[in-house]
Design goal:
By secondary structure, the protein is an alpha+beta fold. It contains three helices and seven strands, in the order βααβββββαβ. The protein has one domain (2-142): Hotdog Thioesterase (Thiol Ester Dehydrase, Chain A, Roll). InterPro entries: HotDog_dom_sf (IPR029069).
């Protein structure tokens, strides 16, 4: 399981003195980009390839509060992937320091060609990176996002 320790910082808080819903989405985005960078795809490589990850849907379920300066653990797993890698569903769980699940984020997306502005298949090494992620128990094979000629 790919995971990193993070902190709930001042900018992550809302009026109710707990982590804001947008902060959970940002942590899920951070863990995705950390994974990609550590697996050969830092931002410079995406720029060179002229593609980028695009999220088309996020679903968040909350379980427990996260408060200011709490240490959290954010995980990343693959919950769905098309055979060509053009479509994916990733899951990030956010755990409090006491080990309790604070939130689960399911994000569905694909790879965007930044010039054509359409979904494309990733290069083989990028697909291999996604395939190397831990698969959730409910993993499913997704249909391709790329239209066949």
């Amino acid at each position: 399981m790919f995971e990193r320790k993070m902190m709930a910082g001042w900018g992550d808080m809302d009026f109710n003195s707990h982590m804001a819903n947008t902060a959970y989405l940002n942590k899920a985005g951070d863990i995705r980009m950390l994974f990609l960078a550590e697996n050969g795809f830092p931002m410079a490589e995406f720029k060179r390839l002229n593609i980028g990850p695009v999220v088309m849907k996020d679903d968040i379920s909350y379980s427990k509060e996260v408060l200011l300066l709490d240490q959290i653990t954010v995980t990343l797993a693959v919950a769905g992937l098309s055979q060509d890698g053009s479509r994916w569903q990733l899951r990030s769980d956010i755990y409090r320091s006491d080990g309790k699940l604070a939130a689960r984020i399911n994000s569905s997306g694909g790879w965007l060609d930044l010039t054509a502005r359409k979904l494309v298949t990733p290069p083989p090494a990028l697909l291999a990176a996604w395939q190397s992620l831990y698969q959730t128990d409910d993993f499913q094979v997704l249909p391709s996002s790329v239209a066949k000629p």
